[in-house]
Every structure is written in C-alpha cells, then in structure tokens.
Amino acid sequence: MQSFFDMRISDSPGRVVLTAAGELDFTARSQAAPVIGPLVLAGRDLVVDLTQVTFMDAAGLGMLLRLCDRVVAGGGAMELRGLRPEIRRVLELTGTEGRFPERAGPAHGTTGPARGAA
Q1: Which has the closest alpha carbon to 82: 116, 115, 53?
Q2: Whole-model pTM above 0.85?
Q3: Half-sphere exposure of 27 (CA within 13 A, CB side)
Q4: Cα 106 from Cα 28, distance rounded (Å)
Q5: Which of the ends of the chain has fewer CB neighbours closer than 10 A, N or C?
Q6: What is the pLDDT along the chain (118 residues), one digit of tens a residue?
Q7: Are 3 and 23 contacting, i.e. CB atoms less than 8 angstroms apart?
Q8: DSSP 8-class letter at 40
Q9: Smallest Cα–Cα separation from 113: which of 67, 70, 79?
Q10: How far apart are CA 10 and CA 83, in angstroms?
Q11: How far is the C-alpha of 114 from the C-alpha of 36, rounded, in Å?
C-alpha cells in the first residue's frame, strides 16, 4: 500500500510556511527531502502546518526534528500548527512536544511564530 503525501511551500522574506497533507512517514520524508533541502532557512522562521496530516511515524518526526535544528541553528524559530490529537500523541510519547511551539489553527495570516518558546 502506498502512502499519500503532499506538501506546499509559501516563501516570504522572513518566514517560510510548509503545509503538509497525508501521511508523514518514510516515503514522505524521501519525497520532501529534495524540496526542503535547498530551502534557505538561515535567519528565517518556519511554520509547519500539519492540519491535514493524518499519520506520522518516527521518520516523519525525525524530519521535523532535523528541520527544527536547522532553523534554530540559523537563528530562526519553528512552530507547528493544526496538530490532530494522533499527531500530538506521537510528540507526547516521544517527549518531543516541548521542542516545537504550537498554535491551534492553520498557518494563515501574517503573524510569525513565537520566539523563544522552544
């Protein structure tokens, strides 16, 4: 069975918004790597909208953690938006929920991520 994954990127001067949909798993990580890899994140914030993500495994979580490390190392902040209970549970079970500031809704509007909350 093949998993479904889709990703959109909105790139503005101070912030990148990554909107994911489907299953955030090993296959998704492989599909996302060539798109996410070249993104310039130094000095910019990253908002990851997971409103439409229905499943996340260790590979998906690993991708988010590496992205967070990259953003923070470049002086930015990373925020997760729209976590479903099953995705939030993965973060809780792995003890990683504190690594990502979170807002309830999808990534609309012009407000950037909260700084210093990670």
Answers
A1: 53
A2: no
A3: 10
A4: 20
A5: N
A6: 457 899 999 988 889 999 999 999 999 998 998 989 888 899 999 999 999 999 999 999 999 999 999 999 999 999 999 999 999 999 999 999 999 877 766 665 433 333 332 2
A7: yes
A8: -
A9: 79
A10: 19
A11: 22
Stretch (H or E) spanning 89? helix 85-94
Residue 90 in tokens: 């993965």
How far is the C-alpha of 41 from the C-alpha of 25, rounded, in Å?
Answer: 23
Q: Which two tokens stand for residue 67?
A: 């992205």
Question: What size, in residues, is the chain?
Answer: 118
Token couple for 26: 């090993």
Place of tokens 């925020």: 79
